[in-house]
User: What shape does this take?
Amino acid sequence: MSTSRLAGTPRLQNVTLKKPFESIVAQHGATVLRVCRAVVGPADADDAWSETFLAALKAYPQLPADANVEAWLVTIAHRKAIDITRAAARRAIPVADVPEEPREGGRDLDLAATLATLPRRQREAVAYHYLAGLPYAEVAAVTGGSTDAARRAAADGIARLRKTYEPDGERS
Amino acid sequence: MNTNDHADVLRDLPAVTEADLAALHARLAERAAADGVLDVAYRTLDTPVGALLLAATEAGLVRVAFPIEGQDEVLQVLAAQISPRVLQAPGRLDAAAHEIDEYFAGRRRSFDLPLDFSLSSGFRREVLAHLPGIGYGTTASYATVAATVGSPRAFRAVGTACATNPLPVVVPCHRVIKSDGDLGRYRGGPDAKRFLLDLEAAA
Assistant: This one.
């Protein structure tokens, strides 16, 4: 098929053709970085992002054209986060410390540090549901366990964050 | 469903900035090239005929596209015809960008770049291979080119080969015009073709 004929059939392209990987990075790069920061912590997030997108690029030609790209990327990020956490544990570098008292002007960093102290399942559920927007059933498919367990983990994680940062906020 | 109703607290997480993403993107492009999975690298280059899209495989420059072709459409075709592993990665296009800059400055008359002709095949590819033989600042007719490739009656097919040249500017299809002096079809439009011919005539 010639280039000109292909270019002349835009509707066919939209239905059947896979997007250039560049547009996957443009569309999902920021969300995946937020997820990586939440799950592995700010210090290792760049490495997790890089490993995720390099692995995604390698596997991309085999991904079905109609696949849920966001869920696919979160699945890869989840595996890479586990690898990075294990490597960090082998290097015996402590997980991010929570400051004893909130620092002036450091509210966002404090929140990131507090997030890092949540149990792993809660961090993952919060990141994959609230930051990546996956339904709980898909969160469960990524992390293992039941949909209800994923929902509870996300709720518990958010409750703990709100308790720390919004003590006067509405409790649900 | 608005999941954010229960997660307002997450708004206080540090923002993801353009600079964060640009640095990560550059690192991804480098690692992809090192691992041999940067199948198509591209960048844009400002020129007097508009911002050209330049794309290269590991084998060489594979596509030069004019703005009127639509960058998204061109990248989509590259993804479909070569590989969906397409990334903006200017490093691989440094030499091509430099030579094209020199050409538009009137300081270069021929290109010395590895070219990947995988977007054209058969007779069209054969025609394109002959085009660099048309000297800088000169023109040839579609009929003459047809005769040169040994198919004197195939001047219409020569016209199609030129009009669908995946490497315009670098492979000089702009130097092929109609016998009566009419410019004929060009991927970048008639104004771009006229500009290139005038540029070469003036240099």
Notes: Chain B has a mean pLDDT of 94. The interface with chain A takes residues 3-4, 6-10, 12-16, 20-21, 23-25, 27-28, 31-32, 35, 37, 40, 42, 69, 73-81, 83-88, 119, 163-164, 166 of chain B (CB under 8 Å). The first helix of chain B runs from residue 18 to 34.
